[in-house]
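Why should sequence recovery work at all? Because a backbone constrains its sequence more than one might expect. Tight turns favour small or flexible residues, buried strands favour hydrophobic ones, and helices have their own preferences. The token representation captures these environments compactly. In the example below, the structure is given first.
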């Protein structure tokens, strides 16, 4: 069933992309390159965006089909609802940018508030849902699976919401090169599947199907997003993918392994935080000119730093894929010794 989810999601995403690209171009949903992007990105100006709709379509079909065949697979459908909610926030942001013709969508605080609202609703459902055997060891939802299981109690829920929102924005920042975010998310989704601790009960359903469907949808999107990209996923896809991976890890008690597997998205968001934090400190301590001349990175997120060093875009993407694959394999190998 899980392999069927991958194949179906891949096929639907490819078909959606085939129909979507000309429609997006006609609609005027075209990429507006940020002034902060490297100069070589000027060639991407005008490429259709909001292609994440194809990813959401590819993911939704197998999950909904399973929900119809096995109606009591409610957690999978709730997880899909979380994903579509974050995709809706991204769609709104992308639509505003397309209409305004400049890289100005939702205000950051409004976008963040909506994300926390959706993540909060998800963890509130998690706190009140009644599962046949629970999600974690001993039936405790609030347990983190480490080498020794740790029960965080009520602190688990705000931390879970924070992780979902954080990973959503991390994937969003990692979505800066052709094929980078889609390839990384496909690898991470496949990596989470073997470590899911969800009990095989009617209450939990098949999170494995959800994971392989994410991977299939991302691979189907890569049919058009590989360099040179014919369409970009936009916030519609990137915000949704991060939330989907985070929510899947929460339901499958794979929160800790996910942190190691998602090394590229976390590197993207940490690089931005370090750059901004150090820049502000140096500007306060030594002045604006000094801060501009002594940046930690040439440009952030981290993949843009390597672009400024002269690395070809395809080389950066390939190596970041390899880093992700290595992180996934290393995490799975470490878990075998748990």
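From this structural description, the recovered sequence reads:
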């Amino acid at each position: 069933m899980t392999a069927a989810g991958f194949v179906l999601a891949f096929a639907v995403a490819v078909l959606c992309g085939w129909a979507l690209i000309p429609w997006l171009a006609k609609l005027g949903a075209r990429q507006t390159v940020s002034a902060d992007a490297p100069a070589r990105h000027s060639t991407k100006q005008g490429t259709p965006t909001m292609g994440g709709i194809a990813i959401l379509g590819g993911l939704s079909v197998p999950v909904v089909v399973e929900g119809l065949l096995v109606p009591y697979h409610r957690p999978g459908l709730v997880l899909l609802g979380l994903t579509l909610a974050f995709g809706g926030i991204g769609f709104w942001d992308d639509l505003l940018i397309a209409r305004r013709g400049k890289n100005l969508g939702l205000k950051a605080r409004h976008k963040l508030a909506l994300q926390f609202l959706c993540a909060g609703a998800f963890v509130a459902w998690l706190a009140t849902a009644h599962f046949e055997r629970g999600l974690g060891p001993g039936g405790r939802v609030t347990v983190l699976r480490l080498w020794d299981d740790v029960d965080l109690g009520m602190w688990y829920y705000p931390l879970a919401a924070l992780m979902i929102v954080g990973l959503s924005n991390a994937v969003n920042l990692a979505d800066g090169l052709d094929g980078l975010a889609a390839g990384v998310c496909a690898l991470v989704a496949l990596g989470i599947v073997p470590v899911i601790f969800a009990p095989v009960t009617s209450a939990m359903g098949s999170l494995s199907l959800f994971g392989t469907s994410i991977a299939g949808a991302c691979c189907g999107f890569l049919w058009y997003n590989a360099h040179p990209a014919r369409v970009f996923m936009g916030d519609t896809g990137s915000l949704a993918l991060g939330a989907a991976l985070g929510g899947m890890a929460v339901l499958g008690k794979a929160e800790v392994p996910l942190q190691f597997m998602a090394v590229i998205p976390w590197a993207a968001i940490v690089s931005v935080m370090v750059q901004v934090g150090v820049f502000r400190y140096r500007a306060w301590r030594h002045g604006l000119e000094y801060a501009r001349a002594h940046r930690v990175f040439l440009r952030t997120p981290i993949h843009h730093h390597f672009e400024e060093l002269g690395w070809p875009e395809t080389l950066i993407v390939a190596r970041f894929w390899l880093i992700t694959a290595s992180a996934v394999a290393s995490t799975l190998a470490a878990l075998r010794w748990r």
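A few observations help interpret the result. Residues 2-259 form one domain.
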